[in-house]
Amino acid sequence: MGTFKAIVIEKGEAGQTVALKDFDEKDLMDGDVTVRVEYSTINYKDGLAISGKAPVVRRFPMIGGIDFVGTVESSSHPQWKPGDKVILNGWGLGETHLGAYAEKARVKGDWLVALPASMSPRETMAIGTAGYTAMLAVIALERAGMSPERGPVVVTGAAGGVGSVAIAILSWLRYHVIASTGRMQEADYLKKLGAAEVIDRAELSGPGKPLAKERWAGGIDSVGSTTLANVLAMTRYGGAVAACGLAAGMDLPASVAPFILRGVSLLGIDSVMCPKPRREEAWKRLETDLDPAKLQALTTEIGLSDVIETAPKILSGGIRGRIVVKVG
Prior knowledge:
Layout: E1 3-12, E2 15-24, E3 33-41, H1 44-51, E4 62-63, E5 67-75, E6 85-89, E7 104-107, E8 113-114, H2 121-143, E9 153-155, H3 161-172, E10 177-181, H4 187-193, E11 197-200, H5 202-205, E12 216-221, H6 225-233, E13 235-243, H7 257-261, E14 265-268, H8 276-289, H9 292-297, E15 299-303, H10 307-310, E16 322-326
Helix pairs in contact: 2-3, 2-8
């Protein structure tokens, strides 16, 4: 047993504090696998946790970070042995279970998936929960009957993590992608990822009608609120929209009109408690349906000591694409 560096979130009478400090291994939570963490990442939920702007953290003290990739140091789980390379996304990491912004983690082996054979550890965290969620959304749309021949697909929050990876995947699959963003200065970046069109989010952020002109066959929405309501109102007959975020709020000021008059489907995407077979399917698809060159282009790397300053920027749209955190 020894100590290691970790970003620890604590709460006292004066409020929440966050600091990079030494953490004692004996204070790690129960689990049957101990992992030496190599990389993590920054997702929207990490920004909320580090800033304290939403009650993401459910116990204190907490080590932040909802994703990691690393090497198994010890294991009593039958599937894993020392030396195995593993990924963890979600399962309450950084919320109810000590998280990924640390040089070590102890977790349940059932939460882990194997590092895809064709990917480096860094690439998996360039994808992270945001990219893995984007892949879950694409798979859900396909299961709802979506295909490139059905028509355009809109992606909201396009310059963010989910949006950037979603565009890269959909364009690889030959969809006509319409990117919606509040950062029109990122239009060239979005087109390089594969967007065929870029529209200002203002077209979707105002109060909308129960039904509007049909513009797309489907969509992936990470914004929520009025944006999602407008996306639904503009979806073509028999289309589908995958909802996976709430950057603009948890409310949905919509009507049932798109569902009962156009047969539109609203598909909920959960990445945190997603069953292991679906996780493995998503990671397998990410090996084949995401251009590594585009992934590299949308990724920036920082060190563990930079997380506290960087994470809150994701809440204000100050981060483009994906951030990889080099831990070990």
